[in-house]
Each structure stands twice: as structure tokens, then as C-alpha cells.
Amino acid sequence: MKKAFVKSYGCQMNAYDATRMADVLGAEGYTATETVEEADVVILNTCHIREKAADKVYSELGRLRVLKGERAQAGQDTRIVVAGCVAQAEGAEILSRAPTVDVVVGPQNYHRLPDLLARSRTKRVVDTEFPVEDKFDHLPARRTLGATAFLTVQEGCDKFCAFCVVPYTRGAEVSRSVAAIRAEAEKLLQGGAREITLIGQNVNAYHGVGLDGGAATLPDLMRVIADLPGLLRLRYTTSHPNDMAPDLVAAHGDLPALMPFLHLPVQSGSDRVLKAMNRKHTADAYRALIADVRAVRPDIALSSDFIVGFPGETEAEFEETLRLVSDIGFASAYSFKYSPRPGTPAAEWADAVPEDVKNRRLQALQTLLDAQRHAFNASFVGATVDVLVEKAGRHPGQVAGKTPHLLPVQFDAPTSTIGTVVPVRIVRAGSNSLFGEAVADAAVAA
Ligand code: SAH
Ligand code: SF4
Ligand code: F3S
Questions:
Q1: Which ligand is nearest to the CA of 56?
Q2: Among 114, 133, 154, 178, which one is least packed by beta carbons within 10 Å?
Q3: Ligand 3 atom 6 nearest Cα
Q4: Domain boundary among 336, 352, 378
Q5: 132 belongs to a structural domain
Q6: What is this structure's pTM?
Q7: Which pLDDT value is given to residue 432?
Q8: How far is CA 272 from each of CA 165, 183, 328, rounded to the nearest angstrom?
């Protein structure tokens, strides 16, 4: 039996794509392996968002070159595939920088993997064209299913934030039809999924063909999916503030399956910086939007992305970011030092912020965000929360799952609870997980 190893970097979209690539190879007779040494095909599903992410690929390829040589000496063939956003951005350049690579395939072309692997036996291949056919129409059924699943509903981005490579690596916004998404969701639910996260680079800009042939928005789509038998929880990510339409905000108040968690990247609290970033909204517009969401769902947990040290960012402008964070209060967040990316407008700008200033700002921001996260986690101690059990826990006899607010919880229960919702009394909050006890006399909701 041939074996395939897939390693994914970057966002949830890449994680989803990685599972679909495994499905494509599975249909060709490959089994998945987590041991790279025994893999006949190694796929690196790469991310181009920051310099560090892209650099990782080449150091990994260096290790793979050695491994491929060792396997060759033992008479074993190894195909090395670079997929994802570095593949899309750098294309054939990867072949010249890394002679060990056999196939370079972009995010829109991985349904062609079997053909590309076959062709690579005579000549190294690059496939990064945006194809005319829809890859989703050419993907086999999903194989690996758990209690939670990602489902791509939208790809690409038309926003062109001045710092970001995504519009170039993932192309223009394209939405799948409600019918296609519903069919995939039904299969996931039949396979045991209980929570579905609708994903897209800009998921709330979703505008697919509805069941009636007209245009459907994200809330329209969510209502169709929420009605499917077996679905307990619905989430979506990642969103842009400018696409938080009133019907989407309203859905947070009146769609029970929609979980009280919103990841809404803001990037900066300074209007001058937001404008330079081409975000097309102000800090106060973001505050007002959050107030609207909280009005319909007061317990919503908020999450965001931040960039510090964008070109020209002054100390006072950075402090406006801290003020925004203090004003809003986030349950979790990702924060990054600005990293100039080839091909993006901001990469050409001269007024770079020195590295030591970036480091200091990142640390100050993360200290504040960490304090907010700890306070949020600690607020659950003593409370009973519904946990959707996903997998076996860290220790024997334990299971792990998540709360409606997306906090990981560990508690003692048999693995037969996987895929069910169990009420758990939280006894302790760690920095990343909660620890609790199943509430014995409460009925276990299916
Ligand atoms: N579509 C999403 C996420 C895009 S990438 C959105 O619109 O928010 C995820 C995060 O990476 C971004 O939100 C941003 O905070 C960060 N990021 C993107 N480009 C970056 C860059 N050049 N340097 C540092 N961080 C970056
Ligand atoms: Fe990148 Fe901006 Fe598009 Fe998000 S909205 S993917 S940050 S260009
Ligand atoms: Fe990275 Fe591409 Fe996602 S650049 S963040 S893997 S869309």
C-alpha cells in the first residue's frame, strides 16, 4: 500500500485543503501516514502570509532532500509536492530553488494531483493556473471525519489590504452554491460531524447561488445548514468588518445553532493606519459593530487579528490599538509583527518600523491580550458549560472538547461520549484549556 504524508501550514482553509488532498490520494489507493520516513508522497501545504511562514518551507525541503536520498538508496521512490500559497506565489521558482521538489501545485488545482504525480515521473511539473473547471466538482468523498469539520464555502479575496498576499495567492472571491455546500454538509453529518465551521478567506462576503436560483447571503446559507439533521453547532470564519451585514449580525441573536464566538480581524486601532492598510473602516466603526453584535448576543466571545509595526506606525498610533483592545475586551486574538510581502503595495513603502520597536509593541499588545484571555477563561470557573466532545484527552480516561465559546476543555469521561454534548462543571482554568467534571445527573444531550 502506498503512503502519503501531508503537512499543512497557515490558515483553516489550508487545513481543509490538506484533508481534501488526502481524500484525492485516498481515492488513488494511498493511505495517510504521520511518519514522513515511510511516505511515498510528501505534500507540504504551504503558507505565504508572513516571511517566516514562507521560510519554513525551504528549511523543511532541505530535510526532505536528505530523506529522499536515503529512501532512494533503499530502492524507494519519494515524490515531493509543494502545494498551497507559496506554490501559487512562487511557482516554478520553487523548482530552481529546491531541486528535490517534483510537483508544485496551487490551491485551485489539487484535484489534479494524481495526474501531476504521474507526469512528474518523466518531468518535474508546475500547475498554478486558475483552472476553468471547479475543483470541488472533481473531489472524491470525504474520508476522515470527526465530530467537528471545516467546510469551504467561499475562497479568495477582493479586498486588497495593503499588506496581504491572499488576493494574489487565492485569487478573486468565489462562492460555492448553497446546494453544493448543503450536499457536502449532509455527508459530513452522516459521517458523524456535529459541528460545522463554514470557512472562507472572506467568509462573510459569501454570495452564492441559493436553492431557489437567486442570490444567497451567509445568513441565508447558515439557515439551510442549521436545519440539517444531526447538526448541533455552526460557526464561520474568517470575516471582514465591512461585510458584517445587518442580517448576519441579527443571525447571532436568532440562530440557536450559531455559536457565540466571532473572529473579526481589525488589525489596528488607528484610523490613519487603517486607511493606509486599505481596510476601509475606522476604529469607531469597528467599536459600533461590536456593540451591535453584543446587543443581540451579550455573551459573545470576540477574537481578532492585529498587526504591529505597519510602515509609518507611530507610538501614538500603536497606543490607539491598545486603547481599542482595552475598550472591547477580547477572549482570544492573534497578533503579528508586520512582515513585508513581495508584490503587495506596503512592501514598497520606505517608512519601515525598526525591528526592536516592532518587538516591543508586539510584547505590549500580547501582554494586554493575554490578560484579557486569562480573565475570560477564569470567568467560567464554577459554571456548567456544554462541551462538544471531540477526541480522547491528554491522559487515559479523559476526553477533550470545546465550549460554545470555543474554549478547549479536558474532563474524565469515556470516549463513547465523542460526538455528544456533555454538561461539564469547570473547576480550573489553565492558560489555554479549561478543566472540569461531567455533571453526573444531567441528561447527556445527543
Ligand atoms: N482574511 C482574513 C485573514 C487573512 S490572513 C482577514 O481579512 O482578516 C490572517 C492574518 O494575518 C491577518 O488578519 C493579518 O493580521 C495577518 N497578516 C496578513 N498579512 C500580514 C503581513 N504582511 N504581516 C503581518 N501579518 C499579516
Ligand atoms: Fe488579506 Fe485583507 Fe483579504 Fe483578509 S481582507 S485576506 S487581510 S486582503
Ligand atoms: Fe497562508 Fe494562504 Fe491561508 S497565505 S493564511 S495559507 S490563504
A1: 3
A2: 133
A3: 47
A4: 378
A5: no
A6: 0.94
A7: 86
A8: 21, 45, 20
